[in-house]
């Protein structure tokens, strides 16, 4: 599986099924260390958000379901910013100009890592949870562990907001 991610063999595959997995605290894997450069050329590291609940969304511009969920992700981001929740996209296929155009078209204001060339961010998460197809959205707890996973496009803000609230309630 690791070689497939490194080689980009699954870049254009899009999830057909919707699935939500909430992972009990005692069953979560190790914290995920990931990073890279955003579409605006800024460096990002998971250390920058450690101690905060975060949402990580794997996407690319040509993914129809990614386009459909963009507005709901942005709305959820706006709703939970005041709670200290961080959002970061991981673009697994496009170059920066395409990601910027997508953000402008769909009103996305949170940053995205440009992961198409290296696959490093996707690979880091593959060690603890499968990233089978975009869109995949992860909720990361304050310790940097995957607390929940949504495979397929989020449908509205309700489920993701509930998963975020659950992670916010956890004691560190």
Write up what this structure looks like:
With 172 residues, the protein is α/β, with parallel strands linked by helices. The chain has a single domain (2-107, 117-169), classed as Glutaredoxin, CATH 3.40.30.10. The chain is 31% helix and 21% strand. The chain contains five helices and eight strands; from the N terminus they run αββββαβαβαββα. It has helices at 2-7, 64-80, 96-106, 120-126, 158-169; strands at residues 19-22, 35-37, 43-45, 54-59, 86-91, 112-114, 136-140, 146-151. The strands form two sheets. Strands 1-8-7-4-5-6 form a six-stranded mixed β-sheet, with helices on one face. Strand 7 and strand 8 form a beta hairpin. The protein starts with a helix and ends with a helix.
Strand content: 15-25%
Order of helices and strands: HEEEEHEHEHEEH
Helical percentage: 25-40%
- Unreliable spans are 1-15
* Architecture per CATH nomenclature, i.e. the level-2 architecture: 3-Layer(aba) Sandwich
Helices, by number, come to: 5
- Per the principal axes of the C-alpha atoms, what is the gross shape? globular
Strand order of the largest sheet: 1-8-7-4-5-6
CATH topology: Glutaredoxin
Question: Helix/strand-derived class?
Answer: alpha/beta
Number of domains: 1
- Under the CATH scheme, which class? Alpha Beta
- CATH level-four homologous superfamily name: Glutaredoxin
* Straight-line N-to-C gap: 32 Å
- Summarize model confidence as the mean pLDDT: 91
Multimerization status: single chain
Tell me the total number of β-strands. 8
Largest beta-sheet characterization: 6 strands, mixed
Q: Compute the CA-based radius of gyration.
A: 14 Å
GO molecular function, one term: antioxidant activity
Main location: other
Keywords: Cytochrome c-type biogenesis, Disulfide bond, Redox-active center, Signal-anchor, Transmembrane
Protein name: TlpA family protein disulfide reductase
